[in-house]
Task: inverse folding
């Protein structure tokens, strides 16, 4: 048998989440994930998941090797849907935006040769931007949406300017 895996421990609301990357896929300790969800997760309660969404591995748990039920990233999201509570939205967001990227970045430290993905957010839309070789890149399929929005903004700006102008001339002169 091989050595136990050493997980990364994350903390949310003073509760630990033991997680690790296996075959470049994030896996979460079912017991910890269940506590964060407010639901007891064990072999029986995770039977609704597919076989590739759960597995038992030997983890270094508080310094001791222990067999732990682990849930894959897709399994964790499925459980969040099956056992929905309003707080699970924040948990899903935390897993997606903090835990998973941290696990992946620990394995592959950022280098200048590695592309980085970011999100540009405007009030009217969001757009993915890839940073690579000191340049920003936008997906070709996003360009028509970007151009249509820009054309629409120009037209609406002209209309509002035109409306202002016509309203100005429609005003009756004031007598002083």
Result:
């Amino acid at each position: 048998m091989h050595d136990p895996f050493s997980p990364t421990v994350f903390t949310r609301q003073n509760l630990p989440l033991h997680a690790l990357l296996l075959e470049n896929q994030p896996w979460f300790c079912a017991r910890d994930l269940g506590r964060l969800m407010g639901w007891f997760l064990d072999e029986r309660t995770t039977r609704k998941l597919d076989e590739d969404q759960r597995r038992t591995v030997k983890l270094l748990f508080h310094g001791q090797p222990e067999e732990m039920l682990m849930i894959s990233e897709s399994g964790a999201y499925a459980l969040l849907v099956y056992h929905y509570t309003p707080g699970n939205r924040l948990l899903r967001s935390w897993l997606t935006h903090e835990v998973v990227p941290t696990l992946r970045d620990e394995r592959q430290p950022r280098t200048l040769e590695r592309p980085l993905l970011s999100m540009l957010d405007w009030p009217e839309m969001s757009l993915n931007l890839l940073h690579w070789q000191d340049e920003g890149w936008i997906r070709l399929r996003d360009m028509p949406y970007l151009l249509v929005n820009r054309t629409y903004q120009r037209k609406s700006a002209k209309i509002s300017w035109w409306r202002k102008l016509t309203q100005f001339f429609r005003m009756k002169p004031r007598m002083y």
